[in-house]
């Protein structure tokens, strides 16, 4: 924006819009509005007579600024707070997960930690609902509890292919524990795996079902006589983040939950951990295990459907030998892994990430990925696009970063596609003091 003096008033060049004959007060007003609104208007020329009244000029200008601002807002991220530490009787909220219900509601899940922000303790899984694409959120609802111990790692996923449930059936997979993770790795306790279901979009829930013997291999007969697996799986965690159901192709209907476990005694660089998955082809009646990902130290994982009807598996690298994401590629939806690769275009500070598939208004399906774009700090939450089923990733757009203000400005996140085909990411913000929801358009992401 520039200005120059002319007879009869001031000339303003407004992003290519030449406005002549302005009173000085009008120029000051426009400066104020534009600095605060950061609008961009289309190229045109307007001649304003020197005697035109300021009020009339502003009446003509303000609608243009309003339209331009509305257009800008549709493209840039907007945030709302979903879970705030200290509210509803919980000291801390962590580990976000989010899904869209068939009726368009957004269901946001988190671990509600009653006494502190530590991973173990009195932890419940809670949920909030948005009926307006994330603009506001309803009251807190407890959906899974383990008395005074831990219920965590929520992995919600809708089964949309079961003919018995025309409106969809929501599965919530989760883990329970009675000891700290290090104690579990040392063989003093185990983590168990459960699910609950819901057929009314998160309103009411079934009794929990224990599926540990199908999806884990613990050696702890003092806990359960059936836990006599020689593999000796100890620590165990679903995702964190949403689960996956394949929607097309040969494996349509498969419910697929990314996970990780530790096996045997603790090892240096956390190499007792490895990522795996479990899946069901009969709507949760039975489950099978995928092979382990062939990378010692692979950890928290998540999956997304690829354009060929298979899936991409994306993991945290707990070993830290390479501070990048690990990806496993498969042609049969996780029954075997064809290739395991360190993704040097996905730097990571050893943290969780999220991935979804997305259909733009034009063109082929893409994959969308979120994580912290740093190798030194949980910061710079960034969302990227892949046009080739995860073989390569864009530079992406940063959602939030504040390295100078917080130790961990951003941390865990989970992605979702809204009913209006906008995108959203539910993420931990400002040293784990809140979980917020940021919504943005695909156009903003790729422009």
Task: Write a concise synopsis of the structure shown.
The protein is 11% helix and 42% strand. With 447 residues, it is mainly beta.
What does this structure look like?
The chain has one domain (78-446): Neuraminidase (6 Propeller). It has 5 helices and 29 strands. The two termini are 23 Å apart. 11% of the residues lie in helices and 42% in strands. The strands form 7 sheets. Strands 14, 15, 16, 17 and 18 form a 5-stranded antiparallel beta sheet that branches. A 4-stranded mixed beta sheet has the order 1-2-3-4. α1 runs parallel beside α2 (54-75). With 447 residues, the protein is mainly beta. β1 and β2 form a beta hairpin. Mean pLDDT is 89; it is low at 1-18, 31-48 and 64-73.
Main beta-sheet strand count, sense and barrel state: 5 strands, antiparallel
CATH topology: Neuraminidase
Show unreliable segments. 1-18, 31-48, 64-73
Overall body shape = globular
- Terminal-residue CA separation: 23 Å
CATH architecture: 6 Propeller
**Helicity range of the residues?**
10-25%
Number of domains: 1
Secondary structure tally: strands: 29
Question: What is the overall number of helices?
Answer: 5
Q: Could you name the CATH class?
A: Mainly Beta
Category from helices, strands and their pairing:
mainly beta
Mean residue pLDDT: 89
The proportion of residues in beta strands is 35-45%
**Radius of gyration using CA atoms only:** 25 Å
């Amino acid at each position: 924006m520039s200005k120059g003096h002319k007879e009869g008033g001031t000339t303003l060049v407004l992003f290519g819009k030449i406005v002549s004959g302005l009173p000085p007060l009008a120029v000051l007003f426009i400066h104020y509005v534009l600095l605060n609104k950061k609008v961009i208007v289309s190229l045109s020329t307007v001649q304003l007579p020197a005697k035109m009244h300021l009020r009339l000029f502003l009446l003509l200008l303000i609608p243009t600024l309003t339209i331009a601002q509305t257009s800008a807002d549709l493209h840039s991220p907007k945030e709302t707070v979903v879970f705030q530490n200290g509210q509803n009787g919980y000291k801390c909220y962590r580990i976000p997960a989010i899904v869209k219900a068939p009726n368009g509601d957004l269901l946001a899940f988190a671990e509600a930690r009653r006494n502190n922000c530590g991973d173990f303790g009195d932890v419940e899984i809670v949920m909030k609902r948005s009926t307006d694409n994330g603009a506001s959120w309803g009251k807190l609802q407890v959906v899974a509890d383990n008395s005074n111990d831990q219920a965590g790692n929520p992995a919600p996923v809708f089964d949309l292919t079961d003919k018995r449930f025309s409106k969809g059936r929501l599965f919530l997979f989760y883990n329970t524990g009675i000891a700290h993770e290090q104690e579990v790795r040392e063989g003093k306790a185990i983590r168990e795996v459960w699910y609950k279901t819901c057929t009314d979009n998160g309103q009411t829930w079934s009794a929990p079902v224990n599926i540990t013997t199908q999806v884990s291999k613990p050696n702890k007969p003092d806990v359960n006589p059936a836990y006599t697996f020689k593999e000796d799986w100890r620590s165990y965690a679903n995702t964190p983040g949403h689960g996956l159901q394949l929607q097309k192709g040969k494996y349509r209907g498969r419910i697929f939950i990314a996970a990780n476990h530790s096996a045997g005694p603790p090892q240096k660089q956390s190499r007792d951990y490895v990522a795996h998955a479990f899946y069901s082809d009969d709507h949760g009646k039975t489950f099978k295990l995928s092979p382990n990902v062939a990378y010692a130290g692979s950890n928290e994982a998540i999956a997304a459907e690829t354009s060929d009807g298979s899936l991409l598996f994306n993991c945290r690298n707990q070993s830290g030998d390479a501070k990048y994401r690990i990806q496993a590629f498969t042609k049969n939806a996780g029954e075997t892994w064809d290739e395991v690769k360190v993704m040097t275009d996905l730097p990571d500070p050893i943290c969780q990430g999220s991935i979804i598939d997305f259909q733009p208004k034009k063109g082929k399906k893409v994959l969308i990925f979120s994580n912290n774009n740093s190798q030194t700090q949980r910061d710079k939450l960034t969302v990227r696009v892949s046009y080739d089923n995860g073989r390569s990733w864009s530079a992406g757009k940063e959602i939030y970063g504040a390295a100078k203000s917080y130790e961990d400005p951003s941390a865990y996140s989970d992605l979702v596609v809204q009913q209006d085909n906008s995108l959203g990411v539910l993420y931990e913000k400002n040293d784990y003091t809140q979980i917020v929801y940021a919504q943005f358009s695909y156009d903003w992401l790729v422009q």
